[in-house]
Amino acid sequence: MSSPAPTTPAVASGPSRRNVTAMLTGHGGRAVLQGLYFLVVARALGAEGFGVLSAVLALVALVLPFASLGAVHLMIRAVVRDPGSAAGNFASAAWVTGVGGAAATAVVTALAAVVLDTELPLAVIAALAVADLVGSLLAEVAAGVYTATERMRRTAAVQLSFTALRLLGALALLASPTAFTLGAWAWTYAAASLLGAAALLVAVRRDVGPAPARPLAYVRQWRDGVQFSIGLAAQAVYNDVDKVALERFAGAGATGAYTAAYRVVDMAFTPARAVLAAAYPRFFAAGAEGLPGALGVARRLAAPGVAFGLVAAAALALGAPLLPVLLGPSYAGSVDVLRALAVLPLLKVVHYLAADALTGAGHQGVRSAWQVGVAGVNVVLCLLLVPGLGVAGAVVASLACDGLLAVGLWAVVLRRRRAG
């Protein structure tokens, strides 16, 4: 791997206006498509069917970070520091991701038979798993090449096209004479995801050029890859273990109502996610000089980020009664859940700024350690609270863990900054 490129004032100053605009447009368009997709699928399946789907995909999300051992993040880091290596790193990351995703699909299918309380056929679970563990991850690799080279319009185009294909699959199934069952949707979801990923890989390869894959180069960086994977896995735990616990202890209907509210919160976070995605390469570039440089990027994003979080919280709380109107009466329980979770975008903005500053400055291990610790707390809280309190227990666990992560990561950043 080449030496880090020197940081210029332009790089250190934060994401460019053009990149932010591109990512806002891309993420905004993607949010609209995801919202339509969510509306179609959640309404067609009802709260119970959507709850089973959510539990399976939550289990997939818990395994997903280890499917590629952080290959996309290793690729972004390498290409940011050596743009001429884009073709080779893309080929290597795609190879590692494809093979790892296939292996992870088998793991999830086996785990589902033990962990989930569902009679869903294993073949259907495998179809849902391969869609995310192979399809989504390969699409992420395709988008990551453009993120690393700061061609954010192309990053947005990759994300939009992949999401659009899934939406088209849902609409096609809805319009077909075939009943919109969970099994039918699983096969449609898998087909749309794998076809979309294949098309994106071909398009990106034509753009960046052919190069031999050297997966062993990524294997040799397994320590860094594992650190990225552990951090992402911990994040998946505190985002998704509540859904697995709810399906197991409170039933599919409660899981569907809770997940619908959580999904709306996640979509509301889209503008902040777009800005953070545009800024992500700059954290690495500024962080090449140490934590103060990466912290400077975080500080410049803090005020607008917090303002956004407050506005999002108010909008979610006020708009909560619309959920059963849009999704159907089986989602009546989602209203109170959405009001309770409305503060999550604010907490996520705060913790992502600190987390990305640590990663950009080379302190991914510290970030991962905190994420693992909070993930453990979330598992314990879910096991203690969900069996007796159901959805209310999941809400308490989610808010407590996001708050703990925000406070804890900033405490680490500021302490290390003072220590020099």
From TrEMBL:
The chain crosses the membrane at residues 50-72, 93-116, 122-148, 160-180, 186-204, 301-325, 337-355, 367-386, 392-414. It is found in: Cell membrane. The keyword Transmembrane applies. It is a multi-pass membrane protein. Its main location: membrane. InterPro entries: Poly_Biosynth_Transport, Polysacc_synth. GO terms for cellular component: plasma membrane. Keywords: Cell membrane, Membrane, Transmembrane, Transmembrane helix. It holds the Pfam family Polysacc_synt. This is Polysaccharide biosynthesis protein C-terminal domain-containing protein. It comes from uncultured Quadrisphaera sp. The lineage of its organism: Bacteria, Bacillati, Actinomycetota, Actinomycetes, Kineosporiales.
